[in-house]
Records
---
Amino acid sequence: MKAALIHYHSPDADDLDSWEPEQSDCFGFLLEVKIGISFEKGADVFQFMVCTPRWLEENYKKEKVVSLRGYIIVFRYDLHEIISWIDNLIDKATGDDWESIAKWIGRYGLWEFEDFNKHSVLP
């Protein structure tokens, strides 16, 4: 099985393809990426916080320790480079089933079904 990027968007920007941050060296936005299996219907959402080191410092300077799983750190805004990095990540994600692929991608981004337990769902 092979994963594929299906769609991406940000709830922080109306049109991410034309969006530009106000400050090129200090910004952060949530990027939601739909990833599925190549040539199959359906996809799951993975979230990444895309930000600069300066944004991190300004938003977390009172913290003594910060855990950064789910973050993509960039030094300047280039949507093409960000999506290319995610595409390369997805390209490395192969497995025998979707769950193993999604768990692997979930090491980098936050998977919407990460803690989902199908046995605890109400009928």
Note: The longest strand covers residues 28-37.
---
Amino acid sequence: MRVSAIFIIVLIAICDARKLKLRHLAKPDDRQSKPGACRDPPDLKEQLAEWLSEAAEGNTAEDWIQPSENDEDWSSSPPSGNSLCDAPLDTSTTSNVMQRSLCPWTWRVSYDDAREPKMLSEASCLCRRSRGTSGSYCMPIKRDTPILKRTRCNSDTGYFEYTRAKVPTTVGCHSVLPRTQRATYMSSSKKNHDDVVV
């Protein structure tokens, strides 16, 4: 009798513990329930749409960024054993864009919780040298993408504040010829050295 009473008490304690655990899991996020906790403003999507619209209207050549040879996409080595870079170009009617591209790319996603949009897709060049026999190099094509950047929490309203900004984003890869240096005239290479013209 005593054993069965102890068993029932233990069983009730286990059931209560499980209910308490389930209640704990179902609780809303503490950050949202605390007074003064910040959240995104309800019109954040409208703010972003307005900024994108204004940025598109004022689209200028300055929005396209000239990548340098020190660009991280330029200097980073392509993944080892990338068969696409070594494969011959396929221009058949059944080929896809990547099979015909001189500079193939892949997509990667960057995530930033303090940015709107939080996720941005970026191109990443797969090959350092262009495919084919042109002797060209693959360079990233970059442009400034309009975003909203979270700056602070306004404790009076309970909403985060965002400012307009632009971030450089790689949108593709293109094949470019290497820079060449012009030959200098012979007269500019003359030097005076101890009264001797060389």
Note: The chain is about 30% helix and 30% strand.
---
Amino acid sequence: MKDMSIAAVCHGVQVPHSPYLNETRIARIEAARYEGDEIAGALAVVRAGDRVLEMGSGLGVVGAVAAFNRAPERVLSFEANPHLVPHIEALYAASGIEDRIAVRNRVVMAAPDAPATVTFHVHASFLGSSLIEPEARRSEPVEVETVTFDAVRAELDPTVILCDIEGGELDFLRHADLTGVRAVVMEFHPGAYGREGMRECKRILERAGFVRNDEVSTRLVWTCEKAE
């Protein structure tokens, strides 16, 4: 990345200019309203010494805010869109947090029969890019390698999960062993699996012992923790 000039600052995290930023998005980042519910949730639950798994980095802001402000032991982030990864890494470098957070261009899958690669559909604006093929909007299909959640657990042993994977959360929760995970911040996407699918996501979390934090949760973004 050659251009390291800073476009916005969010909770101390410096966000360099990139093709994915416009004036509206920059203003939202500056006001902590871009992914604001996820940021609020991450700041509420991540503690010093935590090991954080982030699935769906987006622009990299949410994981970086957690790494910069809460001093976790490690944040390991996964982003399926290969075009975003260099810009995410530039953000980490600009904020001086490369020793605490890293991003990989992989898709985390919990299902036991997960394929070695999956097709990810990249939209021009990056928002809405998904494993689900769009019916109308044009997108660029790219093949992305997968990694099993079991392998990630063996490497990271996560205590916190931050999850924004554009509809993939239902399949993940159906198969994931959340043993050892203390807190989850998750965005639901009922457009991908309906209201009943969203209710199933919430039931799975509740059955696993997670309790919603009403102060920083909404209908579509839950921050929840296990009772200690």
Note: The chain has a mean pLDDT of 93.
